[in-house]
Amino acid sequence: MVDEEPMPTRWSFQEFKTYYDVKLGRKKPVENGETADKAVSNGNSSGITSNGSFHVKITPDKAIYEQFQSQGRNSVHTNGFTPNIVNGKPPKSLLPPLESAEMRTLAESLSRDIIRGNPNVKWESIKGLENAKRLLKEAVVMPIKYPKYFTGLLSPWKGILLFGPPGTGKTMLAKAVATECNTTFFNISASSVVSKWRGDSEKLVKVLFELARHHAPATIFLDEIDAIISQRGEARSEHEASRRLKTELLIQMDGLTRTDELVFVLAATNLPWELDAAMLRRLEKRILVPLPEPEARRSMFEELLPRQPDEELIPYDLLVDRTEGYSGSDIRLLCKETAMQPLRRLMSQLEQEQDVVPEEELPKVGPVRPEDVEAALRNTRPSAHLLAHKYDKFNADYGSQILQ
Protein backbone atom coordinates (compact mmCIF):
# COMPACT_ATOMS: atom_id res chain seq x y z
CA MET A 1 0.00 0.00 0.00
CA VAL A 2 1.41 3.37 -1.02
CA ASP A 3 1.70 5.85 1.80
CA GLU A 4 -0.40 8.92 1.12
CA GLU A 5 0.65 12.39 2.16
CA PRO A 6 -1.37 13.38 5.24
CA MET A 7 -3.82 16.25 4.83
CA PRO A 8 -3.62 19.25 7.17
CA THR A 9 -5.79 19.11 10.22
CA ARG A 10 -5.61 22.76 11.30
CA TRP A 11 -4.12 26.04 10.10
CA SER A 12 -3.09 28.81 12.39
CA PHE A 13 -4.32 32.36 11.87
CA GLN A 14 -0.86 33.41 10.67
CA GLU A 15 -0.86 30.68 8.03
CA PHE A 16 -4.25 31.76 6.72
CA LYS A 17 -3.22 35.41 6.71
CA THR A 18 0.03 34.74 4.86
CA TYR A 19 -1.65 32.56 2.27
CA TYR A 20 -4.39 35.09 1.42
CA ASP A 21 -1.95 38.01 1.50
CA VAL A 22 -0.06 36.28 -1.29
CA LYS A 23 -3.22 35.25 -3.13
CA LEU A 24 -4.70 38.76 -3.12
CA GLY A 25 -1.43 40.39 -4.07
CA ARG A 26 -0.90 42.26 -0.80
CA LYS A 27 2.46 40.66 -0.10
CA LYS A 28 5.26 39.31 -2.22
CA PRO A 29 5.45 35.50 -2.33
CA VAL A 30 8.13 34.12 -0.06
CA GLU A 31 11.32 33.09 -1.79
CA ASN A 32 13.46 30.17 -0.70
CA GLY A 33 15.80 30.99 2.11
CA GLU A 34 13.82 33.90 3.58
CA THR A 35 13.22 34.12 7.27
CA ALA A 36 10.42 32.17 8.86
CA ASP A 37 8.73 35.26 10.31
CA LYS A 38 7.37 36.11 6.82
CA ALA A 39 5.75 32.71 6.29
CA VAL A 40 5.50 29.45 8.16
CA SER A 41 7.80 27.15 6.21
CA ASN A 42 8.85 24.55 8.83
CA GLY A 43 12.06 24.01 6.93
CA ASN A 44 10.42 23.19 3.63
CA SER A 45 11.18 24.93 0.36
CA SER A 46 7.59 25.85 -0.57
CA GLY A 47 6.14 29.26 0.25
CA ILE A 48 3.55 28.14 2.81
CA THR A 49 3.12 24.77 4.49
CA SER A 50 1.16 23.25 7.31
CA ASN A 51 2.18 20.52 9.80
CA GLY A 52 5.50 20.22 8.02
CA SER A 53 4.18 18.17 5.13
CA PHE A 54 1.23 19.80 3.31
CA HIS A 55 2.35 22.24 0.62
CA VAL A 56 0.02 25.05 -0.42
CA LYS A 57 0.56 25.64 -4.12
CA ILE A 58 1.16 29.33 -4.78
CA THR A 59 3.00 28.96 -8.08
CA PRO A 60 0.24 30.59 -10.20
CA ASP A 61 -0.02 33.54 -7.81
CA LYS A 62 3.74 33.92 -7.81
CA ALA A 63 3.83 33.85 -11.59
CA ILE A 64 1.12 36.52 -11.78
CA TYR A 65 3.00 38.68 -9.31
CA GLU A 66 6.28 38.36 -11.23
CA GLN A 67 4.48 39.20 -14.48
CA PHE A 68 3.05 42.38 -13.00
CA GLN A 69 6.42 43.26 -11.48
CA SER A 70 8.26 42.77 -14.77
CA GLN A 71 5.75 44.93 -16.64
CA GLY A 72 5.94 47.74 -14.12
CA ARG A 73 2.38 47.41 -12.90
CA ASN A 74 1.00 47.76 -9.44
CA SER A 75 0.05 44.53 -7.74
CA VAL A 76 -3.71 44.92 -7.49
CA HIS A 77 -6.44 42.33 -7.29
CA THR A 78 -8.06 42.25 -10.74
CA ASN A 79 -10.07 39.03 -10.65
CA GLY A 80 -8.12 37.70 -13.61
CA PHE A 81 -8.72 40.78 -15.79
CA THR A 82 -5.58 42.46 -17.09
CA PRO A 83 -6.35 45.86 -18.64
CA ASN A 84 -3.99 47.41 -21.14
CA ILE A 85 -1.90 50.46 -20.37
CA VAL A 86 -3.09 53.38 -22.48
CA ASN A 87 -0.74 56.32 -23.15
CA GLY A 88 1.54 55.28 -20.31
CA LYS A 89 -1.18 55.71 -17.67
CA PRO A 90 -1.54 53.09 -14.96
CA PRO A 91 -4.48 50.72 -15.51
CA LYS A 92 -7.73 51.32 -13.69
CA SER A 93 -8.51 48.73 -11.06
CA LEU A 94 -11.31 46.34 -11.92
CA LEU A 95 -13.25 47.01 -8.71
CA PRO A 96 -14.05 50.43 -7.23
CA PRO A 97 -13.52 51.18 -3.51
CA LEU A 98 -16.32 49.36 -1.70
CA GLU A 99 -17.63 49.71 1.81
CA SER A 100 -17.23 46.09 2.93
CA ALA A 101 -15.74 42.74 2.01
CA GLU A 102 -19.24 41.43 1.33
CA MET A 103 -19.84 44.10 -1.32
CA ARG A 104 -16.45 43.31 -2.84
CA THR A 105 -17.44 39.65 -3.16
CA LEU A 106 -20.66 40.66 -4.92
CA ALA A 107 -18.71 42.96 -7.22
CA GLU A 108 -16.35 40.14 -8.14
CA SER A 109 -19.30 37.93 -9.11
CA LEU A 110 -20.78 40.71 -11.25
CA SER A 111 -17.45 41.42 -12.94
CA ARG A 112 -17.80 38.06 -14.69
CA ASP A 113 -20.65 39.57 -16.71
CA ILE A 114 -18.37 42.22 -18.23
CA ILE A 115 -17.79 41.32 -21.86
CA ARG A 116 -14.03 41.30 -22.39
CA GLY A 117 -12.92 42.83 -25.62
CA ASN A 118 -15.01 44.00 -28.54
CA PRO A 119 -18.29 42.22 -29.40
CA ASN A 120 -17.35 42.95 -33.05
CA VAL A 121 -20.89 43.53 -34.32
CA LYS A 122 -21.01 46.28 -36.93
CA TRP A 123 -24.03 48.32 -37.96
CA GLU A 124 -23.62 46.95 -41.49
CA SER A 125 -24.01 43.36 -40.27
CA ILE A 126 -27.58 44.14 -39.12
CA LYS A 127 -29.88 44.18 -42.12
CA GLY A 128 -32.69 46.73 -42.12
CA LEU A 129 -33.86 48.37 -38.86
CA GLU A 130 -32.75 51.79 -40.09
CA ASN A 131 -35.10 53.66 -37.76
CA ALA A 132 -33.87 51.74 -34.69
CA LYS A 133 -30.23 52.28 -35.68
CA ARG A 134 -30.75 56.01 -36.14
CA LEU A 135 -32.46 56.39 -32.76
CA LEU A 136 -29.70 54.41 -31.01
CA LYS A 137 -26.99 56.53 -32.63
CA GLU A 138 -28.80 59.66 -31.51
CA ALA A 139 -29.31 58.40 -27.95
CA VAL A 140 -26.00 56.65 -27.20
CA VAL A 141 -23.34 56.90 -29.90
CA MET A 142 -23.35 60.65 -30.53
CA PRO A 143 -23.25 61.69 -26.82
CA ILE A 144 -20.11 59.58 -26.37
CA LYS A 145 -18.40 60.81 -29.55
CA TYR A 146 -19.40 64.48 -29.18
CA PRO A 147 -20.06 65.19 -25.48
CA LYS A 148 -19.67 68.94 -26.04
CA TYR A 149 -23.14 69.21 -27.59
CA PHE A 150 -24.98 67.05 -25.04
CA THR A 151 -25.00 69.22 -21.94
CA GLY A 152 -27.69 70.91 -19.88
CA LEU A 153 -31.12 70.30 -21.34
CA LEU A 154 -29.59 68.18 -24.10
CA SER A 155 -27.94 65.78 -21.64
CA PRO A 156 -28.01 62.25 -23.09
CA TRP A 157 -30.78 59.81 -22.37
CA LYS A 158 -29.68 57.31 -19.73
CA GLY A 159 -32.36 54.65 -20.32
CA ILE A 160 -33.21 53.00 -23.66
CA LEU A 161 -35.73 50.21 -24.19
CA LEU A 162 -35.61 47.93 -27.24
CA PHE A 163 -38.90 46.11 -27.68
CA GLY A 164 -40.31 43.97 -30.43
CA PRO A 165 -41.02 40.39 -31.49
CA PRO A 166 -38.45 37.72 -30.57
CA GLY A 167 -35.68 37.11 -33.06
CA THR A 168 -35.64 40.57 -34.65
CA GLY A 169 -32.11 41.61 -33.57
CA LYS A 170 -32.47 43.45 -30.26
CA THR A 171 -29.40 41.79 -28.72
CA MET A 172 -27.39 42.40 -31.90
CA LEU A 173 -28.28 46.10 -31.75
CA ALA A 174 -27.03 46.25 -28.17
CA LYS A 175 -23.74 44.61 -29.16
CA ALA A 176 -23.42 47.00 -32.11
CA VAL A 177 -23.76 49.91 -29.69
CA ALA A 178 -20.98 48.48 -27.52
CA THR A 179 -18.80 47.93 -30.58
CA GLU A 180 -19.38 51.40 -32.01
CA CYS A 181 -18.91 53.24 -28.71
CA ASN A 182 -16.14 51.01 -27.32
CA THR A 183 -17.77 51.12 -23.89
CA THR A 184 -17.53 48.66 -21.02
CA PHE A 185 -20.40 46.27 -21.74
CA PHE A 186 -22.24 44.62 -18.83
CA ASN A 187 -24.35 41.73 -20.14
CA ILE A 188 -26.86 41.32 -17.29
CA SER A 189 -29.71 38.84 -17.01
CA ALA A 190 -32.00 37.83 -14.15
CA SER A 191 -29.47 35.26 -12.91
CA SER A 192 -26.89 38.01 -12.44
CA VAL A 193 -28.87 40.09 -9.93
CA VAL A 194 -31.19 37.58 -8.25
CA SER A 195 -29.87 35.75 -5.20
CA LYS A 196 -31.45 33.30 -2.77
CA TRP A 197 -29.83 35.05 0.20
CA ARG A 198 -31.93 37.73 1.86
CA GLY A 199 -30.80 41.22 0.93
CA ASP A 200 -28.24 40.17 -1.68
CA SER A 201 -30.38 40.93 -4.73
CA GLU A 202 -30.72 44.65 -4.01
CA LYS A 203 -27.04 44.80 -3.01
CA LEU A 204 -26.12 43.24 -6.36
CA VAL A 205 -28.11 45.94 -8.17
CA LYS A 206 -26.37 48.67 -6.16
CA VAL A 207 -22.91 47.19 -6.80
CA LEU A 208 -23.73 46.82 -10.51
CA PHE A 209 -24.34 50.53 -10.92
CA GLU A 210 -21.25 51.38 -8.84
CA LEU A 211 -19.18 49.16 -11.13
CA ALA A 212 -20.69 50.81 -14.20
CA ARG A 213 -19.91 54.31 -12.89
CA HIS A 214 -16.37 53.16 -12.09
CA HIS A 215 -15.86 51.88 -15.65
CA ALA A 216 -17.68 54.76 -17.39
CA PRO A 217 -18.41 55.11 -20.23
CA ALA A 218 -20.35 51.90 -19.74
CA THR A 219 -23.45 50.19 -21.09
CA ILE A 220 -25.60 47.99 -18.85
CA PHE A 221 -27.56 45.63 -21.08
CA LEU A 222 -30.56 44.14 -19.25
CA ASP A 223 -31.80 41.31 -21.44
CA GLU A 224 -35.42 40.19 -20.95
CA ILE A 225 -36.03 42.97 -18.43
CA ASP A 226 -39.67 41.92 -18.00
CA ALA A 227 -38.41 38.97 -15.92
CA ILE A 228 -36.78 41.41 -13.48
CA ILE A 229 -39.25 44.29 -13.16
CA SER A 230 -42.77 43.39 -14.18
CA GLN A 231 -45.75 45.40 -12.96
CA ARG A 232 -45.85 45.74 -9.19
CA GLY A 233 -48.79 45.07 -6.91
CA GLU A 234 -50.93 43.09 -9.34
CA ALA A 235 -49.78 39.56 -8.58
CA ARG A 236 -50.66 38.37 -5.10
CA SER A 237 -47.80 35.88 -5.26
CA GLU A 238 -45.20 38.63 -5.61
CA HIS A 239 -42.54 38.06 -3.00
CA GLU A 240 -41.11 40.73 -0.72
CA ALA A 241 -37.61 40.11 -2.11
CA SER A 242 -38.90 40.74 -5.63
CA ARG A 243 -40.41 44.08 -4.57
CA ARG A 244 -37.16 45.14 -2.90
CA LEU A 245 -35.18 44.24 -6.03
CA LYS A 246 -37.52 46.26 -8.25
CA THR A 247 -37.41 49.22 -5.87
CA GLU A 248 -33.62 49.24 -5.75
CA LEU A 249 -33.39 49.04 -9.55
CA LEU A 250 -35.77 52.00 -9.89
CA ILE A 251 -33.76 54.01 -7.36
CA GLN A 252 -30.46 53.31 -9.13
CA MET A 253 -31.98 54.14 -12.52
CA ASP A 254 -33.27 57.44 -11.15
CA GLY A 255 -29.80 58.22 -9.78
CA LEU A 256 -28.24 57.96 -13.24
CA THR A 257 -30.05 61.10 -14.39
CA ARG A 258 -28.40 63.12 -11.60
CA THR A 259 -24.82 62.19 -12.44
CA ASP A 260 -22.50 63.25 -15.23
CA GLU A 261 -20.99 59.80 -15.84
CA LEU A 262 -21.83 58.29 -19.21
CA VAL A 263 -23.63 55.17 -18.01
CA PHE A 264 -26.41 53.91 -20.26
CA VAL A 265 -29.01 51.30 -19.39
CA LEU A 266 -30.01 49.41 -22.51
CA ALA A 267 -32.94 47.07 -21.88
CA ALA A 268 -34.59 44.56 -24.20
CA THR A 269 -37.92 42.78 -23.89
CA ASN A 270 -40.47 40.84 -25.93
CA LEU A 271 -43.31 41.81 -23.55
CA PRO A 272 -43.15 45.59 -23.11
CA TRP A 273 -46.77 45.83 -21.90
CA GLU A 274 -45.81 43.86 -18.77
CA LEU A 275 -43.21 46.40 -17.61
CA ASP A 276 -43.89 48.58 -14.60
CA ALA A 277 -44.99 52.14 -15.36
CA ALA A 278 -42.20 53.59 -13.20
CA MET A 279 -39.61 51.70 -15.24
CA LEU A 280 -41.14 52.92 -18.49
CA ARG A 281 -40.71 56.48 -17.22
CA ARG A 282 -37.01 55.87 -16.58
CA LEU A 283 -36.49 54.18 -19.95
CA GLU A 284 -36.85 57.47 -21.79
CA LYS A 285 -36.19 56.18 -25.30
CA ARG A 286 -38.48 53.30 -26.28
CA ILE A 287 -37.50 51.94 -29.67
CA LEU A 288 -39.49 49.38 -31.66
CA VAL A 289 -37.42 46.67 -33.35
CA PRO A 290 -39.97 45.43 -35.93
CA LEU A 291 -40.12 42.42 -38.20
CA PRO A 292 -37.83 42.84 -41.24
CA GLU A 293 -39.10 44.70 -44.27
CA PRO A 294 -38.96 43.14 -47.78
CA GLU A 295 -35.65 44.86 -48.60
CA ALA A 296 -34.09 43.59 -45.38
CA ARG A 297 -35.40 40.06 -46.02
CA ARG A 298 -33.88 40.06 -49.49
CA SER A 299 -30.51 41.18 -48.12
CA MET A 300 -30.63 38.35 -45.56
CA PHE A 301 -31.41 35.75 -48.21
CA GLU A 302 -28.65 36.99 -50.52
CA GLU A 303 -26.14 36.81 -47.67
CA LEU A 304 -27.20 33.47 -46.19
CA LEU A 305 -27.90 31.73 -49.54
CA PRO A 306 -25.39 33.28 -51.97
CA ARG A 307 -25.62 32.23 -55.59
CA GLN A 308 -22.67 30.14 -56.65
CA PRO A 309 -21.27 30.37 -60.21
CA ASP A 310 -22.55 27.77 -62.69
CA GLU A 311 -25.58 27.04 -60.49
CA GLU A 312 -29.28 27.68 -60.85
CA LEU A 313 -30.54 31.07 -59.77
CA ILE A 314 -32.11 30.98 -56.32
CA PRO A 315 -35.65 32.47 -56.44
CA TYR A 316 -35.07 35.37 -54.08
CA ASP A 317 -38.30 37.10 -55.15
CA LEU A 318 -40.30 34.03 -54.20
CA LEU A 319 -38.60 33.86 -50.82
CA VAL A 320 -39.30 37.54 -50.10
CA ASP A 321 -42.98 37.24 -51.10
CA ARG A 322 -43.57 34.08 -49.07
CA THR A 323 -41.86 35.23 -45.84
CA GLU A 324 -44.13 38.08 -44.79
CA GLY A 325 -44.26 38.04 -40.97
CA TYR A 326 -40.98 36.11 -40.56
CA SER A 327 -38.45 37.40 -38.03
CA GLY A 328 -34.72 37.45 -38.65
CA SER A 329 -34.34 34.25 -36.66
CA ASP A 330 -37.09 32.56 -38.71
CA ILE A 331 -35.36 33.57 -41.94
CA ARG A 332 -32.10 32.06 -40.72
CA LEU A 333 -33.89 28.79 -39.92
CA LEU A 334 -35.51 28.85 -43.37
CA CYS A 335 -32.13 29.26 -45.06
CA LYS A 336 -30.70 26.46 -42.93
CA GLU A 337 -33.56 24.17 -43.95
CA THR A 338 -33.00 25.08 -47.60
CA ALA A 339 -29.27 24.31 -47.40
CA MET A 340 -30.05 20.95 -45.73
CA GLN A 341 -31.93 19.63 -48.78
CA PRO A 342 -28.82 18.95 -50.96
CA LEU A 343 -27.09 17.43 -47.92
CA ARG A 344 -30.03 15.08 -47.32
CA ARG A 345 -29.76 13.83 -50.92
CA LEU A 346 -26.05 13.20 -50.42
CA MET A 347 -26.60 11.45 -47.08
CA SER A 348 -29.12 9.06 -48.66
CA GLN A 349 -26.42 8.05 -51.17
CA LEU A 350 -23.81 7.57 -48.46
CA GLU A 351 -26.15 5.36 -46.43
CA GLN A 352 -26.30 2.91 -49.35
CA GLU A 353 -22.54 2.38 -49.19
CA GLN A 354 -21.41 -0.73 -47.40
CA ASP A 355 -18.25 0.79 -45.92
CA VAL A 356 -17.54 4.19 -44.42
CA VAL A 357 -16.20 6.50 -47.10
CA PRO A 358 -12.86 8.13 -46.13
CA GLU A 359 -13.02 11.83 -45.52
CA GLU A 360 -10.75 12.72 -48.46
CA GLU A 361 -13.02 10.74 -50.83
CA LEU A 362 -16.32 12.28 -49.73
CA PRO A 363 -18.23 13.88 -52.65
CA LYS A 364 -19.19 17.54 -52.66
CA VAL A 365 -22.62 18.72 -51.58
CA GLY A 366 -24.78 19.56 -54.56
CA PRO A 367 -26.27 22.98 -55.33
CA VAL A 368 -29.54 24.38 -53.98
CA ARG A 369 -32.44 23.85 -56.38
CA PRO A 370 -35.72 25.80 -56.64
CA GLU A 371 -37.61 22.76 -55.33
CA ASP A 372 -35.42 22.88 -52.22
CA VAL A 373 -36.72 26.37 -51.53
CA GLU A 374 -40.32 25.18 -51.91
CA ALA A 375 -39.72 22.29 -49.51
CA ALA A 376 -38.13 24.59 -46.93
CA LEU A 377 -41.04 27.04 -47.14
CA ARG A 378 -43.49 24.20 -46.48
CA ASN A 379 -41.52 22.98 -43.44
CA THR A 380 -40.81 26.37 -41.78
CA ARG A 381 -43.39 28.57 -40.11
CA PRO A 382 -43.11 32.09 -38.64
CA SER A 383 -42.98 32.31 -34.88
CA ALA A 384 -43.50 35.99 -34.06
CA HIS A 385 -46.24 37.34 -36.35
CA LEU A 386 -49.28 36.76 -34.13
CA LEU A 387 -48.55 39.61 -31.71
CA ALA A 388 -47.38 42.15 -34.31
CA HIS A 389 -50.47 44.31 -33.78
CA LYS A 390 -49.79 44.55 -30.03
CA TYR A 391 -46.27 45.86 -30.67
CA ASP A 392 -47.63 48.43 -33.10
CA LYS A 393 -50.19 49.61 -30.53
CA PHE A 394 -47.56 49.85 -27.78
CA ASN A 395 -45.28 51.75 -30.15
CA ALA A 396 -48.10 54.18 -30.96
CA ASP A 397 -48.77 54.73 -27.24
CA TYR A 398 -45.23 54.83 -25.79
CA GLY A 399 -42.68 54.48 -28.59
CA SER A 400 -40.05 56.99 -29.72
CA GLN A 401 -40.24 58.13 -33.31
CA ILE A 402 -38.11 60.33 -35.54
CA LEU A 403 -40.05 63.31 -36.88
CA GLN A 404 -38.85 64.12 -40.36
UniProtKB/TrEMBL annotation:
<dbReference type="Pfam" id="PF17862">
    <property type="entry name" value="AAA_lid_3"/>
</dbReference>
<keyword id="KW-0547">Nucleotide-binding</keyword>
<feature type="compositionally biased region" description="Low complexity">
    <location>
        <begin position="41"/>
        <end position="53"/>
    </location>
</feature>
<keyword id="KW-0963">Cytoplasm</keyword>
<keyword id="KW-0493">Microtubule</keyword>
<dbReference type="GO" id="GO:0016853">
    <property type="term" value="F:isomerase activity"/>
</dbReference>
<dbReference type="InterPro" id="IPR003959">
    <property type="entry name" value="ATPase_AAA_core"/>
</dbReference>
<keyword id="KW-0413">Isomerase</keyword>
<dbReference type="GO" id="GO:0016887">
    <property type="term" value="F:ATP hydrolysis activity"/>
</dbReference>
<protein>
    <recommendedName>
        <fullName>AAA+ ATPase domain-containing protein</fullName>
    </recommendedName>
</protein>
<dbReference type="Pfam" id="PF00004">
    <property type="entry name" value="AAA"/>
</dbReference>
<dbReference type="GO" id="GO:0005874">
    <property type="term" value="C:microtubule"/>
</dbReference>
<feature type="domain" description="AAA+ ATPase">
    <location>
        <begin position="156"/>
        <end position="293"/>
    </location>
</feature>
<keyword id="KW-0206">Cytoskeleton</keyword>
<dbReference type="InterPro" id="IPR041569">
    <property type="entry name" value="AAA_lid_3"/>
</dbReference>
<feature type="region of interest" description="Disordered">
    <location>
        <begin position="34"/>
        <end position="53"/>
    </location>
</feature>
<dbReference type="GO" id="GO:0000922">
    <property type="term" value="C:spindle pole"/>
</dbReference>
<dbReference type="InterPro" id="IPR027417">
    <property type="entry name" value="P-loop_NTPase"/>
</dbReference>
<dbReference type="GO" id="GO:0005524">
    <property type="term" value="F:ATP binding"/>
</dbReference>
<keyword id="KW-0067">ATP-binding</keyword>
<dbReference type="InterPro" id="IPR050304">
    <property type="entry name" value="MT-severing_AAA_ATPase"/>
</dbReference>
<dbReference type="InterPro" id="IPR003593">
    <property type="entry name" value="AAA+_ATPase"/>
</dbReference>
